[in-house]
Amino acid sequence: YKRVTVKTLVDMKANNEKISMLTAYDYTMATIVDGAGVDVILVGDSASNVMAGHETTLPITLDQMIYHASSVIRAVKRALVVVDLPFGTYQSDPKEALRSAIRIMKESGGHAVKLEGGKEVKESIKRIINAGIPVMGHLGLMPQSIYKFGTYTVRAKEEFEAEKLKSDAIMLERAGCFAIVLEKIPATLAKEVAESVSIPVIGIGAGNGVDGQVLVLHDMIGMTHEFNPRFLRRYMNLYDDMTSAISQYVDDVKSVDFPSEKEQY
Ligand code: KIV
Ligand code: NA
Predict the structure, then answer these.
(1) Of 42, 58, 113, 201, which is best to mutate to test ligand 1, by the most ligand atoms within 8 angstroms of its C-beta?
(2) CB-based contacts of 209, cutoff 8 Å, min separation 6
(3) What are phi and psi of 11, to 5 degrees?
(4) What is the ipTM of this complex?
(5) What residues does each domain of the chain span?
(6) Where is the protein localized (predicted)?
(7) Does ligand 1 lie within 6 Å of residue 46's CB atom?
(8) Which of 41, 115, 202, 246 could bridge to 85 as Cys pair (CB 3.0-4.6 Å)?
(9) Quick one: pLDDT at residue 203?
């Protein structure tokens, strides 16, 4: 396998080749995602919701992110593995941000970190990049700030928010980020941002005018079933398929259909 690097991604944008990105939080899933040819694997703090059942991404800890990331890293042969810096590990000051990023790199073996925010976190981003750690930005809907907004509705519909987002994207490029995630914003705005920077812009609910797409794995394979935003395309309905398989197993155990003659010693 030829490994995907941050340079590969910037070259892909220059060559007009779209970037595919999905989340993974564990070894088995990451083996499948990497083997299927996904370019970037995100160890997202969405693990807080998907893996741990929390209502928001806020509770997940740095130790827990490192556990997930190290499991993913053991599986991956080709993809670039980006790890989310969780809430509370980079906002208070740039030195703390760098310490958190260093822990992720040393203890998980991840290839890059991602953090949410624009000019508020500029100094932290610069400090991390200065230490040689690639940073992916994240603008638009920022789940770690959910209590500031109160809802998960589309962001930057107002002109002043759109203007801030555009200037934040340019700031992120100047600060040295290798890519930016744009979450749940109007497609026209996302396209405009993608055209205004030379680093790749990866969208989730941001239309097709960007340089790549990211989805949460468990949502796109339909393992979750109560989260149904317009931007989500489900490629499987694993919630239903697994439910039937598991209830069939329960029936087979009860009726002593399982194990059969051939399935015993
Ligand atoms: O944590 C996550 O899964 C993310 C993606 C939705 C971009 O940040
Ligand atoms: Na995230």
Answers:
(1) 42
(2) 187, 188, 190, 191, 194, 195
(3) -65, -40
(4) 0.99
(5) 6-234, 239-265
(6) Cytoplasm
(7) yes
(8) 115
(9) 98
